[in-house]
């Protein structure tokens, strides 16, 4: 799953306080089928800028260049719109990565490296990274969204990574480990990286944090080092 050349951002562009947003109103697409995508894109931008609770539906419609009534034709509520953002930006990606993992013929170590360095780099570079901040900071007040996110993102992603780790343990490639603990060790720092990008990292000097893609690679290698089944030395056992 290689990323496209030229899509990786540098720390200088990521960790510089951005100017106030001045997005022009999008021209409404003549193609009716394009409107849901325009609304999802506009919603994610505004949710990331203002927060989910503070964003009004009419603002999303205006950003997308459509009437408020048009928004409600596709998404009857703001909650349904956020669900659509989660489904398109994360759920569909997890399905694609799961299909890739199921067809993968190499080692479990190579598969984990692919999934985390390539997929997480792509997520981090895209507006999708803002979804984690939205969910973590606001979902407590919206239990329906919390349940949806858990079913659509947390459970399938945990199952995917857990299956790769379990496969490695069964094959002897990885040492016996607490699989759930290994999954959390892999995933949580990645989520924290996305949170940092959309909070302190948005205004912090570039020197405050290492280049994000280097961080992702180093983190994955660190966890893989701990997972590998190191041969047990018998030296001195008969002494």
Automatic annotation (TrEMBL):
Q: Where is this region: Disordered?
A: 13-32
Tell me the domain of life.
Bacteria
* Molecular function terms from GO: DNA-binding transcription factor activity; transcription cis-regulatory region binding
- Sequence ranges assigned to domain HTH tetR-type in this UniProt record: 33-93
What organism is recorded for this protein?
A: Piscinibacter aquaticus
The answer to keyword Transcription applying to this record is: yes
Q: Per its record, how is this protein called by name?
A: TetR/AcrR family transcriptional regulator
Record has NAD as a keyword: no
UniProt DNA-binding region:
56-75
Which InterPro entries does the record match to this protein? Answer: Homeodomain-like_sf, HTH-type_TetR-like_transc_reg, HTH_TetR, Tet_transcr_reg_TetR-rel_C_sf, TetR_C
Could you list this entry's UniProt keywords, alphabetically sorted: DNA-binding, Transcription, Transcription regulation
């Amino acid at each position: 799953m290689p990323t496209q050349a030229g899509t990786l951002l540098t720390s200088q562009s990521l960790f510089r306080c951005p100017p106030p947003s001045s997005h022009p109103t999008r021209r409404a697409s003549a193609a009716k089928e394009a409107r849901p995508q325009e609304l999802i894109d506009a919603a994610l931008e505004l949710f990331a800028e203002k927060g989910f609770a503070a964003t009004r539906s009419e603002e999303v419609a205006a950003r997308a260049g459509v009437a408020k009534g048009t928004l409600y034709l596709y998404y009857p509520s703001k909650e349904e719109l956020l669900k659509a953002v989660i489904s398109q930006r994360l759920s569909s990606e997890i399905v694609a990565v799961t299909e890739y993992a199921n067809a993968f013929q190499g080692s479990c170590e190579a598969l984990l490296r692919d999934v985390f360095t390539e997929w997480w780099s792509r997520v981090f570079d895209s507006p999708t990274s803002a979804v984690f901040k939205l969910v973590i900071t606001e979902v407590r007040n919206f239990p329906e969204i919390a349940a949806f996110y858990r079913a659509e993102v947390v459970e399938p992603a945990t199952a995917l990574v857990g299956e790769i780790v379990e496969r490695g343990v069964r094959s002897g490639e990885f040492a016996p480990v607490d699989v759930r603990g290994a999954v959390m060790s892999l995933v949580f720092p990645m989520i924290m990286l996305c949170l940092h990008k959309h909070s302190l990292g948005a205004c912090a000097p570039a020197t405050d944090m290492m280049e994000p893609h280097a961080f992702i690679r180093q983190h994955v290698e660190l966890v893989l080092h701990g997972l590998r089944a190191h041969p047990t030395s018998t030296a001195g056992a008969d002494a």
